[in-house]
Amino acid sequence: MNEKITTFLNSGLLDKYLLGETTSAETEMVESYITRYPEIENAYNTAQHNLEVVAKANAVEAPTSILNTILDELDDAPVIKLTKVNKYKKWYKFSIAASIAALIFAGTSTYFYNQNQKLQSDTVVVDEEIEDLRSDIAKNNAMLDKVMRQLLKLNNPETEKYIIKGNERAKDLKTVAYINPKEKTSMIDVVSLPELPEEQCYQIWAELQGKMVNLGILDKADRKLRNIPYMEDALALSITIEPKGGNTIASTQNSVAQISLQ
To answer: What are phi and psi of 234, to 5 degrees?
Structure first.
């Protein structure tokens, strides 16, 4: 791989391009490199896959629609119908009309006062909804930053990808480990785990200097990309079936998956 390609891959432009954060000039350059260099095209395809992994790991349910809430509040606003008041020609009817007008005025004043109070209450609700929206935007920005950092880790040229598949005892088991010996980081993505009895669980181990080191429990309900402890000079990764809650010593006789790291 020539120096030009290496420099490009280490620049982070490919990750920015995938997240739509490049300028028009940077976009043109990235697309040109993808077209011209098979190594970069391959890195782009891998990065797309990694982005899907990260997106799945950080997926959340969409928040309740604030717009619909506001529209519902507006739909409840009263419509005031104005009626035409007939004028009486005879003077003795003026006092009756004045009394009726006074009653109408009093009723209307009360009505508008109540509507004003309701409007103020609705305004508070809308303000709270807007504040919630701002909070959601802040959370989404934090999530995007987390996605970017995870994607950078996965797309780092020093990161090695290990696909761990189950043996005859757990044919449908599949996990993917991402290990970067330079930055000393390890992550694992649980793709699929066969069902186990309630009193059992899956546990992942690192083989190190003739002993098995616990790296944590793998939970089917927690399918997401997550960090696991990095073990210097680990020879292999192994997954075993253990009692619920995990074990302090690996039950090697219950091993369901293993992969060498050498």
So the answer is: -65, 140
